[in-house]
């Protein structure tokens, strides 16, 4: 009976998590359900379990990251894996080794889980073809950041009880954002209505064809919105090439209490961090009761635990001739 | 409150109905109350009014000049610009941001707008920089400056060379419904040229600018405006090839408009004569074929706007060999008289002329101006189109007197200028 129930439960059966694109609603729901359990686990006094005992997880970051790397490290350790961080920005790549050679070297060390962040779109997928273990995309260029989209979805689902038919506005530098891209795809799969609010210079081409409604001003864009997702604006993009100035950006696109008041009364605010207070978001909003920003960090660990555990199981069953 | 007035027996020019007919205008409280052929000496206004016989002179909307440079933004400059404008029949004007300081700051826009009408006496609107420091490298604060009251964005005499930046500017400005006005010149092709490329430049031995330097930049802009469906106004075109590009873009329904300087409509490269530095202008004076094409463009509406390109230069800056002399010329006071050359000699009728001098620029800048109808501000001028006068530098109101029409006889003179129904200029006073 237990087995039958398990068979009927939606599963996440992929070998890698390279992006949200290509996932089905059932895959995502399975990951979110498992992540819900991991939230409970993480809130216990004794947090560590042994699902990944004996497994080796390598965090391979070609691009500097503190938060995401720490989140993956904690997630792996909480499940009992041996976690090792490699900051490639300072190592062999500087000595001229190609990406594929790096992959071959790492593969020879027999890892089970490889968490990769790279500054070039598609690099993680390329690496996944060259190694013999589960690969998790922790952000590739402007392409995807699937665990961020999953943690955002988990945060929304836990606060609103659902994703379908919610209206979610993603505001800011969509053009350079892999977070936005993964979120747009995921939210569309889950049946949410997605809006993009940004100056035209910070939107990708044909944004409206990605399943979004596009707005160039917050007042119109935020009307009737349940969730306001703010994006980070990189400092180097504030000085005249894409937008005139941080001051002007804040005036027209920064989330203030006034602009938030255009959204639904029970609207909630999210931000993938790190925030530029006073540029894309006011402190009053970021620190208000409507803000889910800290909860997103907590959900990040849970979602990454769910992903690590699922992929590890998928490889185990494959190696044993299952699935 | 000024007394209600009736101006009758006037030659009314309507640039919308395209009529040139006898009638009158009834004004009060700064507004036009009624206008048309039915207004004459016997018009019953039902209250006490003053009657003015216009004696069959032209009574037409005040001119709207989209391209006026000011050296500064101080009271003296505003006052002097206003006096020149009033004497030339210009009741609304757009100042360029290329002053010292550059108009690219919110506080400065508010400062100018707060007193421009009071000090200058005319409707003086300000544009603001399109790029920071007019350097063509980074966007200016278009959204905030528009909120502060800048009604258009331009780098004035300068062209944005970087196509990527210009594309983003069009996109960004469009999302704020902000108008971009652009001078078109490819700096590499223009090089250090000081006059039109051709035989005459070769004979004078002056470095010259080819027409393609203008057209290639214009074609780029039009392609981008078409791609982005963005509002765009080319400040000044000067040659046949540019006119053809504008025609093509309009034919394809790209939402663009075009202007031409009065200098390129009335003068050609031969007027430079023997190195007359007052005719060192931007764009340079072209061949007479080009000039005639510009006139044709006005006649059939392909060119929307005539500007004075009023650009006062210190006389010392003009007392140099041609190639070293400062660029630009004053034009507010001679704009109408020079434009009437098109009426006297080139077969352009008066409503067509006023369409380009008042109605179209007001439409492009979204001003309640440029046309006289019930309810609109009583900004109008009375003009004797036949009055001949010699342009004497010392007679001009402008502090600088670098006019390209020096010592020429022009035909047509503004007799009086009214703003909000109040007379701010009268010939002889």
TrEMBL record, chain A:
Ranges where the Aspartate/ornithine carbamoyltransferase Asp/Orn-binding domain occurs: 166-310
One Gene Ontology cellular component: cytosol
Entry keyword set: Pyrimidine biosynthesis, Transferase
Positions of the Aspartate/ornithine carbamoyltransferase carbamoyl-P binding domain: 15-157
Gene3D superfamilies documented for this protein: Aspartate/ornithine carbamoyltransferase
Example GO molecular function: amino acid binding
Documented EC number(s): 2.1.3.2
GO BP term, example: 'de novo' UMP biosynthetic process
Pathway(s) per entry: Pyrimidine metabolism; UMP biosynthesis via de novo pathway; (S)-dihydroorotate from bicarbonate: step 2/3
InterPro entries documented for this protein: Asp/Orn_carbamoyltranf_P-bd, Asp/Orn_carbamoylTrfase, Asp/Orn_carbamoylTrfase_sf, Asp_carbamoyltransf, Asp_carbamoyltransf_Asp/Orn-bd
Binding-site residues for carbamoyl phosphate, renumbered to this chain: 67-68, 117, 145, 148, 273-274
Top-level division of the source organism's lineage: Bacteria
Binding site for L-aspartate: 95, 178, 232
Enzyme class: transferase
Catalytic reactions on record: carbamoyl phosphate + L-aspartate = N-carbamoyl-L-aspartate + phosphate + H(+)
NCBIfam families: asp_carb_tr, PRK00856.1
Family: Belongs to the aspartate/ornithine carbamoyltransferase superfamily. ATCase family.
Subunit structure: Heterododecamer (2C3:3R2) of six catalytic PyrB chains organized as two trimers (C3), and six regulatory PyrI chains organized as three dimers (R2).
Chain's role: Catalyzes the condensation of carbamoyl phosphate and aspartate to form carbamoyl aspartate and inorganic phosphate, the committed step in the de novo pyrimidine nucleotide biosynthesis pathway.
Protein known as: Aspartate carbamoyltransferase
Organism from which the protein derives: OCS116 cluster bacterium
């Amino acid at each position: 009976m237990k087995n039958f129930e398990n068979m009927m439960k939606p599963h996440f059966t992929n070998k890698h998590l390279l992006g949200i694109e290509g996932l089905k609603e059932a895959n995502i729901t399975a990951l979110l359900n498992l992540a819900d359990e991991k939230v409970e686990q993480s809130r216990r006094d004794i947090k560590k379990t042994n699902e990944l005992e004996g497994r080796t997880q390598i965090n391979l970051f070609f691009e500097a990251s503190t938060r995401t790397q720490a989140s993956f490290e904690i997630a792996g350790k909480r499940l009992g894996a041996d976690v090792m961080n490699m900051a490639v920005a300072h190592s062999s790549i500087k000595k001229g080794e190609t990406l594929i050679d790096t992959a071959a070297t790492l593969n020879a060390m027999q890892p089970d889980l490889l968490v990769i962040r790279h500054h070039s779109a598609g690099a993680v997928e390329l690496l996944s073809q060259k190694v013999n273990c589960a690969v998790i995309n922790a952000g590739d260029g402007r392409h995807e950041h699937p665990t961020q989209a999953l943690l955002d979805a988990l945060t929304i689902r836990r606060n609103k009880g659902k994703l379908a038919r919610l209206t979610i506005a993603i505001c800011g530098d969509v053009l350079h954002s892999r977070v936005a891209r993964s979120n747009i795809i995921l939210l569309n799969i889950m049946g949410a209505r997605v809006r993009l609010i940004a100056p035209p210079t910070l939107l990708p081409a044909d944004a409206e064809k990605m399943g979004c409604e596009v707005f160039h001003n917050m007042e119109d864009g935020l009307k009737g919105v349940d969730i306001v997702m703010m994006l980070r604006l990189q400092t180097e993009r504030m000085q005249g090439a894409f937008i005139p100035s941080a001051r002007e950006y804040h005036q027209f696109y920064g989330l203030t209490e006034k602009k938030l008041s255009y959204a639904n009364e029970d609207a909630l605010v999210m931000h993938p961090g790190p925030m530029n207070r006073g540029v894309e978001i006011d402190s009053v909003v970021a620190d208000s009761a409507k803000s889910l920003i800290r909860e997103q960090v907590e959900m990040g660990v849970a979602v990454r635990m769910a992903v690590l555990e699922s992929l590890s199981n998928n490889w185990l069953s494959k190696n044993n001739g299952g699935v | 409150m000024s007394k209600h007035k009736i101006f009758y027996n006037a030659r009314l020019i309507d640039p919308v109905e395209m009529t040139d007919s006898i009638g009158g205008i009834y004004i009060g409280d700064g507004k036009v109350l009624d206008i048309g052929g039915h207004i004459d000496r016997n018009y019953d206004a039902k209250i006490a009014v003053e009657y003015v016989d216009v004696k069959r002179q032209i009574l037409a909307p005040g001119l709207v000049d989209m391209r006026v440079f000011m050296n500064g933004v101080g009271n003296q400059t505003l006052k002097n610009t206003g006096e020149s404008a009033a004497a030339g029949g210009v009741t609304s004007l757009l100042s360029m941001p290329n002053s010292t300081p550059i108009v690219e700051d919110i506080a400065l826009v508010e400062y100018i707008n707060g007193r421009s009408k009071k000090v200058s006496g005319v409707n003086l609107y300000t544009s603001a920089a399109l790029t920071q420091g007019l350097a063509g490298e980074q966007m200016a604060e278009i959204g905030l400056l528009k909120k502060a009251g800048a009604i258009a964005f331009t780098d004035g005499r300068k062209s944005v060379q970087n196509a990527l930046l210009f594309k983003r500017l069009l996109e960004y400005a469009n999302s704020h419904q902000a108008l971009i006005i652009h001078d078109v010149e490819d700096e590499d092709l223009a090089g250090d040229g000081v006059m039109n490329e051709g035989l005459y430049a070769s004979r004078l031995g002056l470095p010259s600018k080819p027409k393609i330097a203008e057209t290639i930049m214009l074609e780029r802009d039009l392609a981008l405006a078409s791609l982005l469906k963005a509002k765009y106004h080319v400040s000044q075109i000067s040659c046949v090839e540019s006119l053809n590009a504008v025609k093509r873009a309009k034919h394809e329904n790209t939402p663009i408009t075009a202007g031409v300087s009065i200098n390129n409509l009335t003068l050609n490269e031969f007027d430079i004569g023997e190195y007359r530095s007052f005719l060192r202008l931007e764009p340079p004076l072209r061949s007479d074929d080009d000039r005639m094409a510009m006139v044709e463009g006005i006649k059939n509406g392909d060119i929307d706007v005539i500007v004075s390109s009023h650009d006062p230069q210190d006389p010392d800056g003009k007392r140099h060999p041609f190639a070293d002399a400062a660029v630009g010329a004053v034009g507010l006071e001679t704009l109408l008289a020079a434009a009437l050359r098109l009426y006297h000699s080139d077969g352009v009728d008066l409503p067509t002329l006023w369409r380009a001098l008042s109605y179209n620029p007001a439409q492009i800048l979204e001003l309640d101006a440029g046309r006289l109808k019930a309810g609109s501000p009583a900004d109008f001028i009375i003009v004797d189109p036949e009055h001949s006068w010699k342009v004497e530098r010392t007679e001009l109101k402008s502090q600088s007197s670098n006019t390209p029409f020096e010592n020429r006889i022009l035909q047509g003179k503004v007799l009086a200028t009214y703003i909000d129904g109040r007379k701010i200029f009268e010939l002889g006073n």
